[in-house]
Amino acid sequence: MKHIKGDALEWAAKEGYCMIHVCNNKSVMGSGVAKQVKARFPRAFEAYWYNYRLGCVSRDPANNIINLVAQNGYGRVKRHLNYGALSECLHDFMVLYSNEYQDEDIHTVVVPYKMGSDRAGGDWEIVLEMVSFILEPVFEILVVEWEDAR
């Protein structure tokens, strides 16, 4: 696992990379990385909008953005990240990769720093452990911490 500073969304368009991120189950991408995804990659939002049930995975194939619907609601008052749904999404991503994406030669999964842990209230160490346990046997993991280069 590698940790760098930068813009996680820039990696999604690079050959051999895909970016995963957590979405809520309320049909909105209203803050954080999800809001940036919606603004920069409208097809990713469209894919999510058609299937935003907790535990579902959707994808923008043009930019290799993978939406993981693992957040039950939103707000800052309590934890909205559902660890069971996150586990299901990560496992489903592995199944999709094995069955549908394998020809695309994805070798690295980009994970935004504190995915599911900042606004969704999950524990970053638990999220990172889940990502590592489920995805690292097949993929390199690149954690990207936001750094505004402008």
Question: Could you explain how this protein is built, in words?
Answer:
The mean pLDDT is 91. The protein is an alpha/beta fold and 150 residues long. Helix 2 (32-40) packs across helix 3 and helix 4 runs parallel beside helix 5 (124-135). It starts with a strand and ends with a strand. It has one domain (2-146): Leucine Aminopeptidase, subunit E, domain 1 (3-Layer(aba) Sandwich). It has a six-stranded mixed sheet, sandwiched between helices. It contains five helices and six strands, in the order βαβααββαβαβ. A hairpin with a 4-residue loop joins strand 3 and strand 4. It has helices at residues 8-11, 32-40, 42-49, 83-101, 124-135, and strands spanning 2-6, 17-24, 57-60, 65-71, 108-112, 140-146.
CATH-level-2 architecture: 3-Layer(aba) Sandwich
Shape: globular
* Number of strand elements: 6
CATH fold descriptor: Leucine Aminopeptidase, subunit E, domain 1
Q: Which ranges are low-confidence, i.e. pLDDT below 50, for 5 or more consecutive residues?
A: none
As laid out across the biggest beta sheet, the strand order is 1-6-5-2-4-3
Helix-strand makeup class: alpha/beta
Largest sheet: 6 strands, mixed
Strand content: 15-25%
Write the H/E string, N to C: EHEHHEEHEHE
Termini separation comes to 26 Å
